[in-house]
Amino acid sequence: MNTPTPEPRPHKGPSKRTLNVLTALVGAGTLAAGIGWLVYSWTTDLEVPYFAIPLVLCVPVIAAVAFRNCWD
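Now predict its structure.
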């Protein structure tokens, strides 16, 4: 006899609110790390790496979107 195999239940991810909070924390943490690096390099080298300012502003968005897409 062929018994039907049960469909595997999809793995339930975190709630939307939790996912939004975690995404915001990843973005804020990445931004804080980038600003910390800028301040550190400014105090040690006594010059601001101007090429890095756009990266410090863009990389947190990229990191947050990549983190969010892990569950989408």
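The helical segments are 16-45, 52-68.
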